Amino acid sequence: MATLLRSKLSNVATSVSHKSQAKVSGMFARMGFQAATDEEAVGFAHCDDLDMEHRQGLQMDILKSEGSEEGGEPPLEGDIHYQRDGTGPLPPSGSKEACSELSGQGKPKITAWEAGWNVTNAIQGMFVLGLPYAILHGGYLGLFLIIFAAVVCCYTGKILIACLYEENEDGEIVRVRDSYVDIANACCAPRFPTLGGRIVNVAQIIELVMTCILYVVVSGNLMYNSFPNLPVSQKSWSIIATAVLLPCAFLKNLKAVSKFSLLCTLAHFVINILVIAYCLSRARDWAWDKVKFYIDVKKFPISIGIIVFSYTSQIFLPSLEGNMQNPKEFHCMMNWTHIAACILKGLFALVAYLTWADETKEVITDNLPSTIRAVVNIFLVAKALLSYPLPFFAAVEVLERSLFQDGNRAFFPNCYGGDGRLKSWGLTLRCALVVFTLLMAIYVPHFALLMGLTGSLTGAGLCFLLPSLFHLKLLWRKLLWHHVFFDVAIFVIGGICSVSGFIHSLEGLIEAFRTNAED
């Protein structure tokens, strides 16, 4: 009896210890330390995928006490042990069971200000450096599009959250879904109950991988333009950057990387302020006559994708709203974050274009004088390299969950061994993904084209098309006429912009690919 009592006390103590570690890790993710620098906001998607216990190398196993095995009393309620040996069963990712484990009553919640910080980091990332290039090809229409995209993305974020709720039998509004995937699956049920989720997952993987490619491209571009006198080409700089990033294939969690996230974000804001300060110092030479009401028909659709991509945050909003202390403050939080983003992006893009006019480059820091360009660009490269593991790790997790760990529906055997260690062929796949981002960066080293393509393909789909479509499908009987009008208008306009931007970006990429192949 004494042995049994000691065993139970030991199990409970171990359970509390490991749960506390998991909660602290989750708290870091929700306080902005983990999702802070990821412009595609991967930290909260799919029941907070980035801080799920399996990503920490932890798996859940309900320990059966010795008394239960010997026919004694059942195990204590909640006697759950987080093991690092990978032998315990893991609830399927995205399932209600897994989400409930992560959303227990003891899980720390975030305030509206903390939620706004995460949204701000998602839509105010380093990709705003490409916005002046969008003004170059769009003029005042480009500025209008920055405002229009902010309004639309704010609205679609709100209606996406509305799709999480339904009215129960008592007439109360209750949350019945947890993620973007749940909403997509509900829209395709009952005939195709998993089709919507697969579409969203594919779009998410494409966006995450393209984000990784953009980080490699911008690293090579910035280093090449910072040290033009060195006998090192942009492709060589990209290879060097990828060599630094290769250890990402061995990542089991983002605990080490996440410690630098807040510092990187603050450094990026400082860099933006420095660029604006330099532009203001040359205010007397601003070329107002260069900003006109004309568009470059061939290149402006690419600018649309660039602007849309800079506002993408919808994929993680459901989990973010579910982690707020007061979800009723979500709408207010969305309003002030997008208003602030609209003002800052518009001012940054306008003053930067007025300063350099027709000489505006794809990455605006390349226009800075050589005396300060190298310092600013080195900080940006450091930020890009430290930001790369976030989307890379999220893309790997989505692929592993969809293809290797989805229970009986997995296409391939599990890439983790019984002891929780990554198998050799699983490590090979991760390395192959890093090499793939390098090859894309080498053969298509065009920041604006890649950003425009991603924004037109996945950005417009996740921010414009799918939220409006899901809203109409799930709640059309309860919608007022103006909501129906807005949803249809957003779907049509978003579809036109998406198709146009995708075609022109793809044409530019094909031409660039041919040119680089010939060289």
CATH architecture: Up-down Bundle
Q: What is the helix content? A: 55-70%
Strand order of the largest sheet: 1-2
Q: If helices are DSSP runs of H or I spanning 4 or more residues, what is the number of helices? A: 20
What oligomerization state is this entry in? single chain
CATH class: Mainly Alpha
Mean pLDDT: 75
Report on the architecture of this protein:
The structure is a single chain. The chain has 519 residues and is mainly α. It has one domain: Amino acid/polyamine transporter I. The protein has helices at 2-30, 45-48, 66-69, 96-102, 112-123, 131-138, 140-162, 180-188, 195-226, 234-245, 255-258, 261-281, 300-309, 317-322, 330-356, 370-387, 389-404, 424-443, 447-475, 481-518, and strands spanning 59-62, 80-83, 165-167, 173-175. It has a two-stranded antiparallel ribbon with strand order 1-2. The chain has a two-stranded antiparallel sheet with strand order 3-4. A hairpin with a 5-residue loop joins strand 3 (165-167) and strand 4 (173-175). Helix 6 (131-138) packs antiparallel against helix 13 (300-309). It is globular.
